Hints:
By secondary structure, this protein is α/β, with parallel strands linked by helices. Helices cover 53% and strands 17% of the residues. It has a three-stranded parallel beta sheet with strand order 1-2-3, with helices on one face. It is globular and about 35 Å long.
Amino acid sequence: MEVVSTIASGARLMRSHPKKSVLSLTFTNGAKSNGQVIKGMKELAKGNEPYMLGAALVGVKGLQKIVADAASLFFNREFAAFDDMDEAKECLLSHG
């Protein structure tokens, strides 16, 4: 599945950077979720936590929103959700 391989590529890329240095912007419009994708996203969030300076999600709706909210609670991290790409970028830049 393409989404799962993209998750794995993202994990390798993020983990190649210094800790607390990565700003992540995820655009989810039209993305399909299933158990395998949700599991991959949970593992990604957990494993990437030491590298993250900030994370923003754009276009999160329905099941994706529920998963993002649950991940925020489970990992004790904020995954800021936006409808607008420019707002998400502004939020991330405020972390830098």
